[in-house]
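Session log. Operator J.P. requested a structure for one protein chain; no other inputs attached. Running the standard single-chain path with token output.
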Amino acid sequence: MLKPVEGQKAIAFILGGKKAKVELSGLKNAEECIGTLEPGYRMVGITKGQFSLIDIVKALVAQTGPADLIVCTWSIGIRDAENVDWLLSQNLLRSFRLLVDRSFQLVNAKNAGVVRAKFGTDFIRSSNVHAKFFLLGNERWKLVCRSSMNLNRNPRFEQFDIDDDAGLFSFFENFVSEVWRMAKPGMESRRGIIDPPFKASFGGITEAGEVALKQEAKKGGLPSESIDELDGLIGELPGLDSVLPND
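Structure written below.
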């Protein structure tokens, strides 16, 4: 059962009810960890980075059939963009929308260029984003995956949760729709374009939020963790860019 919880300038959902499938694995692949989907499916997993977010997408879409994909992430790898493009070309994905952090093209212009070339501007939005999740939905399935993983390969301990729940799906979809409606199409990094819709969304911004944005701007516009995490969140392992989508 989903319970809405409302607060000042925020809304959340509390999940309860069905017991989740639990996996703690350093060896299993995405398909083995996820197992067989069933209505109301729930899963909580921790990995050692042996598979990535796109591998979870591919494992799920193999069971759901053609579906629409929405990804919210801090960074994207070239291999992962190629995989999404391949899934679209094979009609395994019916559509794709990407919400990415404004710093992405500042810290990895090469990857940003590949993403822009493959998906254009209509299906991309940028904002002040650190949330990481994807939605995979069709007429039968409403899958929501929340994860520590960005849309790139990262050989570290990672966490992910998956739920088949229409209410939870709508909650995240409404968030994306709000950002999509207010943000400029395409990939953008300029604060003068990013910050106004960010501040205006969901009823405004708190005083503490205003202060945090100003402090971030003084540091050159990158989130405080950007420099610390470049080796993992943005960096690609040697050779991974050449991996074919169906490998």
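Operator note: The longest strand covers residues 93-101.
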